[in-house]
Amino acid sequence: LHAATLGLELIGVPVGADRVEVDALQRLDADVLVLTPSHQWPTGAVLSAEARTAVVEWARARDAVIIEDDYDAEFRYDRAPIGAIHGLAPDRVAYAGTASKTLVPGFRLGWLVLPDALVEPFAAAKLVADRGSPVLDQLTFADFLRRGEFDRHLRRLRPVYRARRDALVAALAQRLGDLRPTGIAAGLHLVAWLPDDLDETEVVQAARAHGVAVAGIEPYRVAPATQGGLIFGYSSISESAIRRGIDLLAEAIAGLRSGGPSPRA
Amino acid sequence: LHAATLGLELIGVPVGADRVEVDALQRLDADVLVLTPSHQWPTGAVLSAEARTAVVEWARARDAVIIEDDYDAEFRYDRAPIGAIHGLAPDRVAYAGTASKTLVPGFRLGWLVLPDALVEPFAAAKLVADRGSPVLDQLTFADFLRRGEFDRHLRRLRPVYRARRDALVAALAQRLGDLRPTGIAAGLHLVAWLPDDLDETEVVQAARAHGVAVAGIEPYRVAPATQGGLIFGYSSISESAIRRGIDLLAEAIAGLRSGGPSPRA
To answer: pLDDT digits over A63-94, tens only?
Structure first.
């Protein structure tokens, strides 16, 4: 939608449960490839080392640019850090970071590390777009970084988010064992895939009727859905609220499965 | 340039020394008219009451929208306040204000008062453009407004800017009496028109060689130049620096007129 507004044509690349499909990439004819390699949005899939090499080769062969949107690489729980693709090909990759996930979305600051040839065009486009980001916010963030507060902030938050993720994964296993969570090793959300007997839209509506706001994955699909899934963001919800939410969601799904009307609808 | 980047066609409307030319407006075929009625950028011309009525009639007849960019209406020195065109036709006029002139350009906050029918489309466009302005900055500015500090700030600054304007006008009259200043009753800059024997580009270059940064009006013209002019911004320069700058500019212009090489070039 956003791409179309800008006059761009959007082409999807299939993403497996835990990988971008390299074969599909080989057939892709595009000028720009946007990736979220350390935690794919929304599935949480990690781009394998093999796929990282393949996308760089793809970009070189086609004189294309990779936009590496590293939107939530700062929060990892059960895996080693993964190097940025940018390091493999700094002349091909525009690396994008943001403070939206680590600090707060309302802060509105992000950054790009660009190939030399793109620095001037991007600076000119930024000037036309908004004449630059707020100066006080930039100075404040620079001070926060320089004094080491940003690193301390991340270290403080990592166990908080890990505990919320653990509570969510445990509650799902206990109450909704046939949902299959993926992308749980990092980030601030996970996707739980639905078994075939559950319709995504019906589950989202039944959850809402039980007072649980959970998003379906359908709006983020480029190709038609093959399997339903729910996106659970856990960054701003306490562990007890997470457990209560999954209890209510389990009630809603039980209602759907019993075929009766939703008890609270 | 900016308009062309956005795929829009730019059409100029002639602006007299102190008025928009209403006759030219009648022949104008456009969907949107952008005006800076309280202090035209860059000439400082004020849109007369007659012209205000005429632009509203023009917009109604053509089902067009007026964007009223009231970028520096807060600073007036020798004239009564002028009502916004928005008040004449709230259904036709998008009123735009900014904190860039009253506080600091790096603050990057502005606001729009829109006709009802444009609120939703503008909100959607803002979301696509940047997902909204920084929240902390908005809350800070709201608090500054609510506690009356913004009004106090304007009252404190008005005499400061007035003194700088007076110093500039006096220095021009004393050292460069054949330059004709306009737009001096309001705002934070003035335009001084050059007599026919002085070429704008040569004056700007000679001034630069004397250590004086002054902008020509040519880059802001839509139609070919008929007369040269210099834009003097005085908001961030002390009175003594203003006087020193005009002294140096007078030297530069004297050098041009004597036909010799610039003494410091």
So the answer is: 999 999 999 888 999 888 888 999 999 999 99
Strand partners, A186: A76
| A218 vs B: CB within 8 A | no
CB < 8 Å to A136, chain B: 106-107, 137
Cβ within 8 Å, pair B108-A134:
yes
Rg of chain B over Cα atoms, rounded to whole angstroms, equals 20
User: Does the structure's ipTM exceed the value 0.90?
Assistant: no
Report pLDDT digits (tens) over A163-176.
999 999 999 999 99
CB A109 within 8 A of CB A77: no
Q: Does A4 touch chain B (CB under 8 A)?
A: no
Token match 């445990």: residue?
A170
Q: CB-side exposure of B141: number of CA atoms within 13 Å?
A: 18
Residue in A closest to B4 by C-alpha = A128
Closest alpha carbon within chain A to B108: A134
> Is B82:B72 a contact under the CB 8 Å cutoff?
no
For residue B130, give the chain A residue with the closest CA: A108
Q: Which DSSP state fits A224?
A: P
Longest dimension (CA), chain B: 62
Rounded to the nearest angstrom, the minimum Cα separation between B104 and chain A is: 9
B122 touches chain A (CB under 8 A): no
**β pairing state of A189-193 and B180-182:** unpaired
Residue B152 sits at φ, ψ, to 5 deg, of -65, -40
- Chain A residues whose beta carbon lies within 8 Å of the beta carbon of residue B71: none
Nearest to B108 among A6, A107, A133 (CB): A133
For residue range B7-50, list pLDDT tens digits in order: 889 888 887 654 556 778 888 899 999 999 989 999 998 888 88
Task: Give CA separation, B41 vs A59, B19, B37, B88, in Å.
Answer: 46, 12, 9, 22
Is residue A20 within 8 Å of A68, Cβ to Cβ? no
Question: Greatest CA span in chain A, whole angstroms?
Answer: 62
Angle between helical axes of B149-175 and B135-146 (0-180°, round to 10): 90
- φ/ψ of residue A128, rounded to 5: -70, -40
